[in-house]
Amino acid sequence: MVEREVVEERIRTGISEVEHLQIEDLTGTLDHYQAVVVSRAFEGRTRLEQHQMVYRALGELMGGSIHALALHTYTPEAWLAKHRAGSSADG
Q1: Is 57 within 8 Å of 35 (Cβ atoms)?
Q2: How far apart are the C-alpha atoms of 46 and 33, rounded to whole Å?
Q3: What global pTM score does this model have?
Q4: Structural domain range at position 54
Q5: b/e map 72-83, b = 16+ CB within 10 Å
Q6: In the chain, how many domains are there?
Q7: Separation of first and last alpha carbons in the chain
Q8: Tens-place pLDDT, residues 11-42
Q9: What is the pLDDT of residues 40-90, one digit of tens each?
C-alpha cells in the first residue's frame, strides 16, 4: 500500500515539466491507481515511451506496493485538444 501523495511526488520528481497530474485511488486500498499525467517531457515520444517514463519514476513501487495503474499520458497540446473536443461535443 502506498499513499496517493507518494505516487504524486514520485511522478513529479521523476518527470520534468509536469503541467497537470491527477492521481485517483480506484479501490480505496492504496494499491490500484489511475493517473493522468500531462508533461512537455512526453513530446516526440510514443505512448509506450511515455508510460515507461512514468513507470521509471515510480520505480520499485510498480509491481510492489502498486498492483495496478491505469495510466493516461498527454503532451500539453494533446491535453488541450482533448478538452477542446470534449467542450464542443458537450456544448
Answers
A1: no
A2: 22
A3: 0.89
A4: 4-90
A5: bbbbeeebeeee
A6: 1
A7: 41
A8: 999 999 999 999 999 999 999 999 999 999 99
A9: 999 999 999 999 999 999 999 998 999 999 999 999 999 999 888 876 544
